[in-house]
């Protein structure tokens, strides 16, 4: 055997050993469930309510749902008129799992809000009437990144300055998924404040065609009911979506309020996500049927404060 072939033969002999050593030194990737101390077979579920602070009807329904553990998390619309009520409630409930529902649009026609930042500092975020625009498409077309960042920081800083202990960030109506620049700012806010941001591995609650950074997408899939479901089938629809899910981490997003005069006035021309819609969601999360379903299906309820523990150690650094 020549020296050249002898070296090649030696390499071939060592390849299995080198491969074994590499595997031994590289720990297998753990699921989010395992990083939180649960078995890989677990199904973890966040039941989350959007739009806290929008008005009193939304607030009182969401407060009740948080206090009675019908939901595990909620996120706040800081620019909205009933935000002060949220800050007062949060002071009395410091363990509540609350995030910021970062808002760049104001979608209702009779209930509008503007930016937290001074309007002369963020002109690209304004509609002609001086409020945030009705549609998220307008945000993607017109908003300047520097002004978006100023406004996002202002919303988060206002909540923290009032003593609200934040657990996460998400984006109102997916506005921050409207462009690569907006998504970059979405991640930047998470890094800067050390808070997880909602990113879904499957479905619409994620960036356009961009893969979330490894280890930072803590939710496999988001479940949120669509228009066209009859009220009598509301709970059954959610159960049908949840029952077949494989092991993983999931979030159900609900929109809670009472179907009262205030809510009907605020959402008069919006039957989807309007007063009746939110009453249906409230009736669903509080129903013994749905709570029994979750127990029978062995879903483990968690919040964003829990999920944050699964972030990579170098997150935001």
What is this structure's SSE topology?
Blueprint: H1 3-25, H2 32-35, E1 43-52, H3 56-67, E2 73-76, H4 83-92, E3 98-102, H5 136-142, H6 145-161, E4 166-171, H7 180-193, E5 200-202, E6 219-223, H8 234-242, E7 248-254, H9 261-266, H10 275-286, H11 288-296, E8 299-301, H12 304-307
Parallel strand pairs: 1-2, 1-7, 1-8, 2-3, 3-4, 5-6, 6-7
Give a description of the structure:
- The structure is a single chain.
- The protein has 317 residues and is α/β, with parallel strands linked by helices.
- It has helices at residues 3-25, 32-35, 56-67, 83-92, 136-142, 145-161, 180-193, 234-242, 261-266, 275-286, 288-296, 304-307, and strands at 43-52, 73-76, 98-102, 166-171, 200-202, 219-223, 248-254, 299-301.
- Strands 1, 2, 3, 4, 5, 6, 7 and 8 form an 8-stranded parallel beta sheet that branches.
- The protein starts with a helix and ends in a 10-residue tail after the last helix.
- The model is unreliable at 1-28 (pLDDT under 50).
Average pLDDT? 91
Distance between the termini: 54 Å
Number of strands: 8
Structural class: alpha/beta
Q: What's the alpha carbon Rg, rounded to whole Å?
A: 23 Å
Secondary-structure element series: HHEHEHEHHEHEEHEHHHEH
Largest sheet: 8 strands, parallel
Low-confidence stretches: 1-28
Briefly characterize the structure.
This protein has 317 residues and is of the alpha/beta class. The protein has helices at residues 3-25, 32-35, 56-67, 83-92, 136-142, 145-161, 180-193, 234-242, 261-266, 275-286, 288-296, 304-307, and strands spanning 43-52, 73-76, 98-102, 166-171, 200-202, 219-223, 248-254, 299-301.
């Amino acid at each position: 055997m020549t020296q050249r072939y002898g070296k090649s033969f030696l390499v071939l002999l060592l390849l299995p050993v080198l491969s074994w050593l590499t595997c031994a030194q590289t720990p297998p990737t753990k699921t989010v469930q395992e990083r939180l101390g649960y078995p890989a077979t677990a199904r973890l579920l966040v039941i989350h309510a959007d739009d806290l602070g929008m008005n009193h009807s939304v607030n009182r329904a969401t407060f009740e749902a948080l206090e009675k553990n019908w939901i595990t998390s909620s996120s706040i619309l800081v620019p909205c008129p009933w935000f002060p009520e949220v800050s007062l409630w949060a002071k009395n409930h410091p363990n509540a799992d609350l995030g910021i529902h970062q808002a760049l649009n104001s979608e209702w026609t009779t209930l509008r809000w503007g930016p937290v930042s001074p309007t002369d500092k963020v002109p690209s975020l304004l509609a002609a009437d001086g409020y945030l625009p009705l549609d998220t498409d307008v945000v993607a077309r017109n908003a300047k990144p520097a002004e978006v960042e100023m406004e996002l920081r202002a919303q988060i800083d206002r909540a923290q300055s009032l003593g609200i202990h934040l657990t996460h960030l998400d984006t109102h109506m997916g506005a921050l998924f409207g462009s690569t620049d907006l998504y970059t700012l979405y991640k930047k806010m998470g890094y800067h404040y050390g808070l997880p941001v909602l990113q879904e591995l499957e479905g619409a609650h994620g960036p356009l065609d961009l893969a979330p950074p490894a280890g930072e997408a803590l939710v496999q899939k988001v479940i949120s009911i669509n228009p066209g479901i009859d009220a009598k089938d509301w709970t059954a629809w959610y159960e049908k979506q949840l029952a077949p899910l494989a092991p993983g981490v999931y979030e159900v997003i609900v929109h809670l309020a009472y179907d009262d005069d205030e809510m009907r006035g605020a959402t008069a021309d919006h039957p989807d996500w309007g007063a009746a819609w939110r009453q249906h969601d409230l009736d669903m999360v509080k129903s013994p049927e749905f709570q029994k379903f979750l127990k029978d299906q062995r879903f483990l309820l968690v919040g964003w404060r829990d999920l944050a523990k699964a972030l990579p150690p170098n997150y935001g650094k």
